[in-house]
Amino acid sequence: MKNSEKKVILAFSGGLDTSFCVIYLKDQGYDVVTMTVNTGGFTKKDQEYIAKQSKLVGATKHYYIDGKKQLYDQIVSYIIKGNILRGGIYPLSAGPERLIIATHLVEIAQKEKAAAVAHGSTGAGNDQVRFDVAINVLAPHLEVITPIRNSGIAREEEIRTLEKHGISVPTVSKTYSVNKGMLGVTIGGKETKGSWDSPPEEIYPGIAPLTDTPDHPDSIRISFKEGFPIKINENRMKGISIMEYLTEIGGKHGIGRNIHLGNTILGIKGRVAFAAPAITILIKTHKELEKLVLTKWQSFWKDMLSDVWGNFVHEALYFDPVMRDIEAMIDSSQRCVTGEVKIKLYKGNIIVEGYKSPFSLMDSNVATYGEKNILWTGQDATGFCKIYGLQSVLAHKAYQLGKQHEKQKN
């Protein structure tokens, strides 16, 4: 084989699975190039550790790529504008990051003239589908190698293999799979394999247990412009910086920790623990502002299509053309979502205290509410009530007559 045909680009986190993948691929005769995409949550120390681990396990080259802006622009912004919570609680904390990683896998493979890419997903979860579908769309000529999925190896055997090579992994990696990113932290482990137990609180990095949260709330104001968060209090900030700030202050108050139970792409039930303070705060505040400025039917149709968008992203269908159509509708719905929301963070709660907008549908210049309403008279209201409920009245009368007719027949 040519050298390019024995070169593989591996999505590398430095954890147990991907460290094992390097050893496995080298044993198969591959020249392994590792690639790490920072989608948020990485410290300088993390970056240094991953690069060191790549070299330790025998990779010939390591790439480090900052993917935060791409993730925010393509995915996070729409999760905020769409108020997207899978199952009503889960803000897609990890899955969309795989899309960003897959696009860079393809780019590095082209740069390195590699014939194959690899990832460390198992054969049970959603990530394998996300990686494979994205790669097949963007570069169908690339071979996709999945050492963990193909070998069906247990974590204990991975640990033994690495130890034979004199390589250690962090203790937490032996028990839990922890993914940190801009959207939060997701955790899988022994407790999430069933439906009853939950991981210990100390497993959630950066999130204070409720017993350790402050006894006094923090009050903040978040400003939005056309659906995008642009300011915290008086400080204008970029979206990524807002996410980082809210992750820190929300984590201090124990915001955004939960466990999601849902349907996997493969059709079985899956359970994941997560902590997502920033996106939880932004969705809550953004949704409240929307209530002030959107009409009932705008909210209805936008919520329906946003749910479809979130499901398609989560289930590896980001590249379906309908997604661009839905994004156009979401973008259009945000033209008046400009204003400010004030909240308190306290003991795991986000307390919304108020909101204002130049496009408010509660503006007294638009309508007067309460007993002094001047948009219609009492006589107008009486006629409206009579007409509005007419079909219900007719249906009820028809049902009574029908029952009477059936009774006479019998």
List the helices and strands and how they pair.
Layout: E1 7-11, H1 16-27, E2 31-38, H2 44-57, E3 61-66, H3 68-82, H4 95-112, E4 116-118, H5 127-138, E5 143-145, H6 147-151, H7 155-164, H8 171-175, E6 177-181, E7 184-188, E8 218-225, E9 228-232, E10 235-236, H9 239-252, E11 257-263, E12 269-275, H10 277-293, H11 296-314, H12 322-333, E13 339-346, E14 349-356, H13 378-388, H14 390-409
Parallel strand pairs: 1-2, 1-4, 2-3, 4-5
Antiparallel strand pairs: 6-7, 7-12, 8-9, 8-13, 9-10, 11-12, 13-14
Mean pLDDT: 92
- Computed Rg: 26 Å
Shape: globular
CATH architecture of the largest domain: 3-Layer(aba) Sandwich
The main β sheet shows up as: 5 strands, parallel
- Secondary-structure-derived class: alpha/beta
Q: Could you characterize the architecture of this molecule?
A:
The chain has 14 helices and 14 strands. The model has no long low-confidence stretch (mean pLDDT 92). It has a 5-stranded parallel beta sheet with strand order 3-2-1-4-5, with helices on both faces. A 5-stranded antiparallel beta sheet has the order 10-9-8-13-14. Strands 6-7-12-11 form a 4-stranded antiparallel beta sheet. The chain starts with 6 loop residues before the first strand and ends with a helix. A hairpin with a 2-residue loop joins strand 9 and strand 10. By secondary structure, the protein is an alpha/beta fold. It has helices spanning 16-27, 44-57, 68-82, 95-112, 127-138, 147-151, 155-164, 171-175, 239-252, 277-293, 296-314, 322-333, 378-388, 390-409; strands at residues 7-11, 31-38, 61-66, 116-118, 143-145, 177-181, 184-188, 218-225, 228-232, 235-236, 257-263, 269-275, 339-346, 349-356.
